[in-house]
Amino acid sequence: MTTFRNHCPHLDSVGEITKEDLIQKSHGACQDCKVRGPNLWACLENRCSYVGCGESQDHSTIHSKKTKHYLTVNLTTLRVWCYACSKEVFLDRKLGTPPSLPHVRQPQQTQENSVQDFKIPSNTALKTPLVAVFEDLDIEVEEEDELKARGLTGLKNIGNTCYMNAALQALSNCPPLTQFFLDCGGLARTDKKPAICKSYLKLMTELWHKSRPGSVVPANLFQGIKTVNPTFRGYSQQDAQEFLRCLMDLLHEELKEQVMEIEEEPQALTSEETVEEEKSQSDVDFQSCESCSSSSEKGENESVSKGGPEDSTETTMLIQDEEDLEMAKDWQKEKMCNKSNKADSDGEPDKDRDTVCETVDLNSQETVKVQIHGRASEYITDVHLNDLSTPQILPSNESVNPRLSASPPKSGNLWPGLTPPHKKAQSSSPKRKKQHKKYRSVISDIFDGTIISSVQCLTCDRVSVTLETFQDLSLPIPGKEDLAKLHSSSHPTIVKAGSCGEAYAPQGWIAFFMEYVKRFVVSCVPSWFWGPVVTLQDCLAAFFARDELKGDNMYSCEKCKKLRNGVKFCKVQKFPEILCIHLKRFRHELMFSTKISTHVSFPLEGLDLQPFLAKDSPAQIVTYDLLSVICHHGTASSGHYIAYCRNNLNNLWYEFDDQSVTEVSESTVQNAEAYVLFYRKSSEEAQRERRRISNLLNIMEPSLLQFYISRQWLNKFKTFAEPGPISNNDFLCIHGGIPPRKASYIEDLVLMLPQNIWDNLYSRYGGGPAVNHLYICHTCQIEAEKIEKRRKTELEIFIRLNRAFQEEDSPATFYCISMQWFREWESFVKGKDGDPPGPIDNTKIAVTKCGNVMLKQGADSGQISEETWNFLQSIYGGGPEVILRPPVVHVDPDALQAEEKIEVETRSL
């Protein structure tokens, strides 16, 4: 791990060593018992050449105690251990001869006038990355301490926090995520409070430490969660699924990185089709995917209007012009604001918020109209299709747009030193290629999947297709009648809207009482009496089943311009590396909450999701093995959470019940009442490939060239079934150099590989780019200096203008500005956000009455002077102007003279 490189006082005793010396020693044997490697230990004490065993009789430890030589290096992994400090240490002098690196300037941060200045410091050499060793490529090192499985540490309950403990243990046993924090801990860097990623890193380090403490207290992480989300304050029982979503949203927000890509501009894009800016899905809160079963949505109190019975993420099916586009965006944003604090009946965040979708419309002329929104882009284009029944879906991540000003400033540039960015965008000629922005994090890499949701009008056969990113699947638990329909040959795929899961339908008092009696009777009678057992495949089939949209749930067809009968269906376009499945066991009404205790059987291995994969999806692994399962014992109002997790080191199952950890059998896990399940893609081929590469590294062939590779991608190679192409862009800028802000911790981002390893990885996975030389990008340095100068200039001018505004006794006018936009600008000038905000957007605080733009009542706005408004508007553009003029009070001169006379007479008395 590269995070905890605490200074070891014994490093001064290390003699001169080279990688060649260690390689030569690794071919030898223990000097005491003559046992040969692997896992021999070499003493690093100056002028000491001792080599001892670490497994047979542990002569290396005996040598350390006798001679007080505390530092020793494992000749297999090249990792250094200090016996006195009882910890792993890292040498300042890296093993091996590094290639020459130029002296470069390293960024430092100071603070002046609340601005983080980007200064170019004195010459400092880039730190040389470590050479990749066996453990970096997932070699199983059979040291004595490795024989004891790690990760079997409990979590103390600190006040009704079993829901948190179960969720954390389930996540902890997801190898791709945990291995990222253990091996790439140096990437857990954030300036955002409360730094949840750092607390999570510390917790994972404690849980997976080789000392294996009995239990730890997750107090820091819990305190950070409570700071952000008031729901988890106090000592009441909460929902484990809600906690998972909150935690993963926060981790993504703190760890997200902007990814710059160059992509072809759509050929069918015309000048009338306005390109708009939108946030990437990876930049907004993740949501559970519940859109495929409208029946479940209806029963879950998720509003479905007659104007659009399908998922709200589809907003309007097609927006033909810019005005309609803006109206739809405003409508969706207003819904998000109104429902941001409202949970649905299952205790889940409203799914209308910030859901990524791409809309594709098929009409009878065999033309598909595409509207992509939520992925930082919106455009409409035409693509001809050969077969309406099998629409060809465009890739979901293929388009992102630059920031363009919607309304240019009305006046010229009043501040010559600052160039309005929107004017540059307008003056520049359109190009075939353009730069796009999107965001990713380890959370989105692991848990993001894509669903295709389609609605077909049964009158005109128009098909609307929505590409939707999901983080988990919330599945209904079908009842007996639903199972019969799912299994019936007469109803192979269609399930009537509202039928899936009787427990989710709105109930009156009598229906509620009858349902309660029914469940009581069901619990007292053997399950065979009631029919087949519900399986996880049944829940998936119910979720992906077609829904008939008719009656009160009719479909608003854009082509027919009226309500029509329709059919809704969905499939998965891209499966995530780890699939999180949430079973809807809880139903919350106004005065009552109920729990569905139906047992759902689930496989421990070999969950086949091929039936739910879209026809035109790219080839991918669709077989999953269970990693962990969260269970709830009790009722809807009270109960207890536990987790069953498979330890990745010994493949045994354990029960995590707060601070108690107990080994259990597979049958115990299969009989559990599952609430949340984590499945991981299964691939024997990936395991064979890792072993092959590890064997190549063991050869230690001399290489004239060393290649640098991303630690993040290497973690994917170690833990993903489908790591994808090599991506070194997480430590490179668009110019091919090291971004100045990453230069100080470049050793946490990359590892060096021998040429033969790089050649094998590159020929297998592709990607890149190949990197043989690390240097700080001079172009990025200049850009950083310019942006920092711009920050300081804007802030200084604003402070001066605002101070003058505060000194005015009675200003004639006030200019209102959206506080949402102002906060973004403030974050930029204070150095908290690297990108400047877009154009000023006062649409949320403005309302037009009788042709006049007025301030909306209760709007989140601030007041600035006319000079300040002109200054900001000349740089960023946007609008509209919202002006307040204080009422002028006219005083009668005679009355004023009489008051003054009375005051004089009063003083004389």
UniProtKB/TrEMBL annotation:
Residues 684-777, 785-888 form the DUSP domain. One of its GO terms (molecular function) is G protein-coupled receptor binding. GO terms for cellular component: centrosome; focal adhesion; Golgi apparatus; neuronal cell body; nucleoplasm; perinuclear region of cytoplasm. It is an enzyme of class 3 (hydrolase). Its main location: cytoplasm. SMART domains: DUSP (SM00695), ZnF_UBP (SM00290). GO terms for biological process: axon guidance; cell migration; centrosome duplication; endocytosis; nervous system development; positive regulation of autophagosome assembly; protein deubiquitination; protein K48-linked deubiquitination. It catalyses: Thiol-dependent hydrolysis of ester, thioester, amide, peptide and isopeptide bonds formed by the C-terminal Gly of ubiquitin (a 76-residue protein attached to proteins as an intracellular targeting signal). Residues 392-410 have a biased composition (Polar residues). Residues 263-320, 392-437 are annotated as: Disordered. InterPro entries: DUSP-like_sf, Papain-like_cys_pep_sf, Pept_C19_DUSP, Peptidase_C19_UCH, Ub_carboxyl-term_hydrolase, USP, USP_CS, Znf_RING/FYVE/PHD. It is found in: Cytoplasm, Cytoskeleton, Microtubule organizing center, Centrosome; Cytoplasm, Perinuclear region. The keyword Transmembrane does not apply. Residues 6-108 form the UBP-type domain. Residues 421-437 have a biased composition (Basic residues). Its EC number is 3.4.19.12. Keywords: Cytoplasm, Cytoskeleton, Endocytosis, Hydrolase, Metal-binding, Protease, Repeat, Thiol protease, Ubl conjugation pathway, Zinc, Zinc-finger. Residues 153-682 form the USP domain. The keyword Cell membrane does not apply. Deubiquitinating enzyme that removes conjugated ubiquitin from specific proteins to regulate different cellular processes. Belongs to the peptidase C19 family. USP20/USP33 subfamily. This is Ubiquitin carboxyl-terminal hydrolase. It comes from Rattus norvegicus.
